[in-house]
Amino acid sequence: MTSDSALTSEQILSAAEDVLRRFGPGKATVVDIARALGVSHGSVYRHFPSKAALREAVTQRWLDQAHHDLATISTQAGPAAERLHRWLATLFAAKRRKALDDPEMFATYLTLVGELSSTVEAHIDTLVTQIAVILDDGIRQGEFRPTDPAATARAVFQATAHFHDPAHATEWSDPRSETDFEAVWTLLLSGLSATG
Questions:
Q1: 140 in helix, strand or coil?
Q2: For residue 134, with 0-12 CB atoms within 10 Å meaning exposed, 13-18 middle and 19 or more buried, which class applies?
Q3: Does 182 score more than 60 pLDDT?
Q4: Is the pLDDT of residue 102 over 90?
Q5: pLDDT at 3
Q6: Which residue, among 172, 152, 165, 163, has the nearest Cα to 113 in the 3D structure?
Q7: From CA 177, how far away is CA 174, in angstroms rounded?
Q8: What pLDDT does 159 receive?
Q9: pLDDT tens string 41-72
Q10: Cα-based distances in Å from 122 to 23, 24, 90, 108
Q11: Per-position DSSP letters for 44-112, written without gaps between them
Q12: Is residue 25 within 8 Å of residue 111, measured between CB atoms?
C-alpha cells in the first residue's frame, strides 16, 4: 500500500501498465489502478487530470523507452554508417522484444497508440530527427552523398518500416527477419554512400 502523499507519477504509470496488462485498455479503470496502489482514485487524479491523460502518459512512457538508447547512438562520435546501422538494429530489437516478450501489453499499446495519433506522430518525428543527425554527420564526414538530411531520414525510416512498424509485428519472429533486415540495410547503405 502506498501513502497518498508519497505517491509518484512513476508509481502510477507502473501500476497502470500492470492493470492494462491484466484487464486490457477497454476494461481498465482509474479505480483499478488506484486499488492496485492502495490509494483513492482521487490520488491518481491529482497526478493525471483524466483517464485520457493517464493513458497518454502510459503510451508516451512506452514509446519513450527506446528514445534514450537511440538518442545516445545518434550523437556518438564515429563512422556514420556504423552508427546508422546500430541505430536501426537497436530500434528493431527493441520493438521485437516488446512484441514477442510481452504480447498482451504490446496489443494494449497498439490500441492506445491507435487512439493517440498526435503522441505517435511526435514519437516518429523524434526518431526521424535522430536519423537526420546521423545522416548530417555522414554527409559532413564525406561518408554519405549530399542530400537533404531531414527528407532522407524520413525515407530511411519509411524504408525500414517492416522492422519497426507494429503492423508487421507478427512477422518479426520469422527466423529470416535478421537476414531480411541486413539485406535492406545493405541496399540503403548503397544508396546513401558517397562512393556508391
A1: helix
A2: buried
A3: yes
A4: no
A5: 55
A6: 165
A7: 5
A8: 97
A9: 999 999 999 888 888 888 788 777 767 889 99
A10: 27, 24, 19, 19
A11: HHHHSSSHHHHHHHHHHHHHHTTHHHHHHHHHS-S-HHHHHHHHHHHHHHHHHHHHHH-HHHHHHHHHH
A12: yes
Q: 174 is written with which cell numbers?
A: 520469422
CA distances from 27 to 19, 23, 79, 168, 171 (A): 9, 6, 48, 26, 28
Buried b or exposed e, range 15-43, using 16+ CB within 10 angstroms: bbbbbbeeeebeebebebbbebbebeeeb
CB atoms within 10 A of CB 47: 16
Domains observed in the chain: 4-59 (1.10.10.60), 65-192 (1.10.357.10)
State the amino acid at position 144 in one-letter form: F
Length of the chain: 196
**Rounded to whole angstroms, how far apart are CA atoms 92 and 178?**
9
Q: How is residue 108 written as a grid cell?
A: 494494449
Q: What value does the mean pLDDT of the chain take?
A: 88
